[in-house]
Amino acid sequence: MSDMPDSTNLQAADRTGGEDLIHALHQEGIRVIFGLPGVQLYHAVMPLLDYPDIQFITTRHEQATTYMADGYARASGDIGVSMIVPGPGLQNASAGITNAYAASSRVLVICGQIERDKIGKNIGVLHEINDQLDIVKPITKWQSRALTSQEIAPTIQEAFYQLRTGRPRPVEIEIPPDALSERVSHLEYSPQYPETPPVDGAAIEEAAALITEAQNPVIWAGGGIHTSGASEILLRLAEYLQIPVLTTPEGKGAISDRHHLSLGTPQGRSTGESKDELRDFFYTCDVVLAIGTRFATANPTASQTVVQIDIDPEELGRNHERTLGIAGDAREVLTSLLEAIEPLTAPHQSKKTRFEALKNHRYNNPANHVEPQHAYIQALRANLPDDAILVTDMTIMAYYSRVHFATYEPRSYFTSSYSGNLGSAFPTALGVKVAQPSKIVVSVSGDGGFLFNSPELATAAQFGINVVAVVFNDGAYGNVKRDMKSLFDGKSMGVELTNPNFMKLADAYGVTGIQAKTPEEFEDALKRSIALNSPVLLEVLVPEMPSPF
Fold it and tell me: Taking the CB of the first residue and of the last residue of the chain, which one, N or C, has fewer CB atoms within 10 A?
C-alpha cells in the first residue's frame, strides 16, 4: 500500500497554496528538487514531508541548484527543478539558468517573492528586488507570477506546457509567501501533454531532392539530436546515404565515434583558414544537413547549401543565408526525410575505407596532438566505460577533449554550450549523477573554475552523489594567462592563483582526495577513484600548458 497521501480525499479547505504546488509537481512526475529553503519558501518546502518519493537536495549555493537541475535535465531527458528564494537567491541562481538557456535545457525555476501587497513598492523588505521577472526574462523562455493560491496550479500547468513545447529552455515562476500559505479552493490537476506539430511535407520533399542529388553531403549534428532522442534515426539516414557526421561539442555522441561515419568535432575557433582536417573536409561538401544546432560555429562558405532542421523556427537560416529550413522535432523530421529519400535512391555503397583513413590521419597522427593534454585525455577515455558521462568546464583540458575525447553514446558528454560558464562542470555533474546513478560521472575542471563551486563537495558527501571531480591544477587561470602572454609580449595580469591544499580540502568536506602528477599516475588514480564508488576529488598537478586549439 502506498504511503503517499490520498489527495482525492482532501477537502478544498485542507490544502494550502504550497501543498497545491507540491501536489502539482508530483502529478507532473517530478521526483527530485534542487533547492535552498528560506523564509519566503517555508510553505513550499514543508509539504514535501508528505511526499517521501520526492527528494529535496539542499545545495550550498543557489547557483548550484540551477546547475544541478540543468545536469539532471540533460542527462535524463526529463525536467529539472530548482527552488530558490527571491532577490539575491534568484540572482545567484542566474548563472545556472543562463547555462541551461544556452544548452536548451528543460529547467523549471520556482522562486519565492516578497508579500504580494509589497511587490513593486520599493520599501526595502527582505530580498526585495523591483521587477524581478525582468531579471530572468533574457535567460528564460517564459516567466510568470502566481499572486494567489488559486493561480498556482494553472501557472504550474502552463510552465510545464512551455517546457514540453517548442525549443526546450528554462522557465521561471515566482510565488509570494502569502499565496503559498493561504488555502486554495480547487484540487484537480491534470498534466498537459501537447501533440507534436506536423512536419512540412513540401519542405521534406525539397530537402530529400537536395540531399540525394548532392555530390558530397555532410551532416552537422548538434545537441538537439539528444534532446529529441534522434540518434537511431540519424544513424539510419547516415548509413543509407553514407553521409559522414560532424558534431558540435553539444552533439558529441549523436552516433558512436567507433562508427566510420562519425568524423568527430571540428575545432571551434576556425575562421575558414584553420589547419583542422575536418574543417578542410567540411569546405569540400556541397550540401550540409544541419540538425538540432544553431549552426553558429560552422562558418560555411556562401556557395554551400544548408538544409537546417530545428524545433525553433527562429533559428532557421539565422547563421547562413542559403538555407532550406524545416521546423520540427529532429526525430520526427528525420523519419519523414528518410521515408522521402528511400524512393529516390537505393542505399549507397559503403565509404568506410575513405572515412576511416581521414579519421586515422586526424586522430592518430602525432602532429595533430598537443601534449600533455593528449596523454591525459587518452588516459581518461581508456579507463572509462562507453556509457560513462563526462562533464566539462571552461578549461584547457576540457577544450582539448571536445575534439579528442571519443564519445560512444548519446547524452554522455556535456559542455556549458555558448554560455561558457566557468565553474559549471562540477555542480552540473552532480545533477547528472542524480539522474544517472548507475553510470560513472566525471567532471573536468581547472583549479580556478573548480573553486567557484567547491563547497558543493559537501552536497556530494551529504547526499552520496558519487562524482569523480578531476581538477587540473596549474596555479592560474591558465587559458587566460596563455592568451595574455601571447598578446602582450609575455605579460599577464590577474591570472595567478594561490590555491588551497586540495587534499586537505577534500578531507575537510568528507570526500576522498587523490593526487596525480603525470598521465601514468592519473590513469592509476582514475581507476582507484572509480573503484571507490564515492565522491572523489582527483587533483592533477600540471605545468603551464600550450594552446589546445
Answer: N
* CA atoms within 13 Å, Cβ hemisphere of 377: 24
pTM: 0.94
Task: Extract the C-alpha cell encoding 180.
Answer: 503559498
Q: What is the mean pLDDT of residues 26-37?
A: 97
Give the Cα separation of 219 and 244 in Å (integer): 6
- How much is the pLDDT for 29? 97
The confidence score (pLDDT) of residue 11 equals 45
**H-only helix segments in 303-424:** 330-341, 352-364, 373-382, 396-404
- CA–CA separation, 259 and 239 (whole Å): 10
Separation of alpha carbons 198 and 6, rounded Å:
39
Q: What string of DSSP letters covers 482-506?
A: HHHHHHTTT---S-B-----HHHHH
Average pLDDT for 360-371: 90
Element (H, E) at 514: strand 512-516
Query: What average pLDDT is seen over the chain?
Result: 93
Comparing 115 with 267, which gets the higher pLDDT? 115
> Distance between CA 148 and CA 128 in Å, rounded?
18
